[in-house]
UniProtKB/TrEMBL annotation:
Listed name of the protein: Recombinase zinc beta ribbon domain-containing protein
InterPro entries membership: Zn_ribbon_recom_dom (IPR025827)
One Pfam family named in its UniProt record: Zn_ribbon_recom
Organism lineage: Bacteria, Bacillati, Bacillota, Bacilli, Bacillales
Domain (Recombinase zinc beta ribbon) ranges: 13-54
Domain of life: Bacteria
């Protein structure tokens, strides 16, 4: 998995940055490299990992 970033311009001129995780094989080779090409928002993955680390008492500083 790799983090991919894109910036979308809104109708009011402001910009919104999206970061998401994507299969690196799919990114390089398309459907021949990987059948799983769903994007997952980076923030969701990050929060999930932090929560699991806290539950297992492996992370106490956040």
């Amino acid at each position: 998995m790799v983090v991919v970033q894109t910036i979308k311009k809104r109708s009011d001129g402001s910009r919104r940055k999206y970061r998401y995780m994507k299969c690196s094989n799919y990114r390089r080779s398309g459907t021949h490299g990987c059948v799983n090409h769903w994007r997952v928002l980076y923030e969701n993955v990050r929060e999930f990992i932090i929560q699991r680390l806290k539950e297992n008492r492996l992370l106490s500083t956040l």
